[in-house]
Amino acid sequence: MTQRKSLDYVKKDYIRTRTLPGSWYLSSYKYKFNITHMKPFLEKLKEKKLIANQCSSCNRVFYPPRFVCGKCLVKPDKWVDIRNTASVSTYAISYLKDPETGEVQQRPMVLVHHDGADTASIAELSPDLDVKDTYVGMPIIAHWRDERTGGLMDIEYYDKFDDDSDDLRNND
Questions:
Q1: DSSP character for 111?
Q2: 5 lies in a domain?
Q3: What does the alpha-carbon distance between residue 61 and residue 80 come to, in Å, rounded to a whole number?
Q4: Residue 136 backbone dihedrals phi, psi, to 5 degrees
Q5: Beta bridge partners of residue 122, listed in sequence order
Q6: Is pTM, for the whole model, over 0.90?
Q7: What are phi and psi of 46, to 5 degrees?
Q8: Enclosing domain of residue 101
Q9: Does any domain span residue 92?
């Protein structure tokens, strides 16, 4: 048993956690989700353009759009254009087994922070990109599918690119 002086609590060593038997049949549930607030966003995806909604109270920009601002609980009511460029906020390496060959492949799953947005979303990097070349802050650009349907999967993956734009650099 250890005690941390700074937090004034005692950490106990547990031998076993509690387990409860049960089963979940999630496929039997029917979910209803209203996506009318995303209609302008989905229409712009068909045109290879990205837009996000902005909260009129705190000016936070949400990509993908949200139904309500989590900070001030106001419905974002303004649409703003954002770039198809982004940067990697963080990443995790997933190990996927190839169904054809049976070999394990390393694929980075990244948290993408789009230029012009205040939030981030999970995405996949290019299959040609090596896992060892992935780093936090890496500039990336959206690679669109050939046939777009107006959904989040219209962005097939993100590819690395050299960011040489002056307006994104910190010139101190």
A1: E
A2: no
A3: 8
A4: -70, 130
A5: 111
A6: no
A7: -65, -25
A8: 36-164
A9: yes
